[in-house]
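Appendix B. Raw example, untouched.
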Amino acid sequence: MAPVTRRRFLSGLAATGAAIGASAVPRTASARPLDEVMERGRLRVAVYRDFRPFSFQQDGILVGIDVDLARAIAGKLGVKADIVEQIAGETVSDDLRVAVWRGSLFGGELADIMMHIPYDKQFGLMNPEAVLFGPYHHEVFALARNPQRVRSAMLATLPEEPIAVEIDSIPDFFLLGLQGGRLRSHIIHCPTPEAAVEKLTSGEAAAVLAPLSQVQAALGARAEQFPIATVTLPGMMTSSWNVGMATKENSRDLVYAVGDAVAALTEDGTMARIFASYGVTHTPPPLVE
């Protein structure tokens, strides 16, 4: 299997509903990692750098859905959140190695947990040093469009109008091959989904295809002018995926405590409120194995 890059994996290169997590682990694991968190009074959490709307700098302050969720989880544990930014590596496996189980070659403290990791069984088997757990959001792809130029959200009937995508993403690959490459010359490649949305709002593009959460957050109130519809991408590995967390393999006791916190935050509505504060609709993950 080829290396899994963050862009491809976080854009949905994962099998829907396949997962590995705490439900498969007996509760006889060592309690040492959780005890350490409680003793020092802080939960160290790694989040991706420059990853709107989940973790990004705003006026010099680290904010975002994953940042707020990390603080809420720490609150449920009765400790403070110590949040660190993680620069995305070449692959998600690299990110896990640096953040939660081996550390950087330059030193530094490991994170107790890392946010926004694809919750996928095959990927979990490829990374036995880490435990994937706590799925907290179900992501899908969406098409936002200028209704005057693109009258329908049906991908098969997209007109030959400019459409913006994040370069080397699943939507990019899909459109390049759609109907023999009919729209190939109309694709606008952008560095991020947010940049793609700006192409739409400026009029340079007639539509944008990207993960729903990033489209919603980038459009904000402008969504009234640019209708958003969730879509499936026939022929691709997936059109939706679950987002979860990861920790070191010997920290399974921490898995249960954080998992319980996530469940409580979902049940009491805190999770939905956090997502809504960034203009995103929270979708709880479906039941997974």
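End of appendix B.
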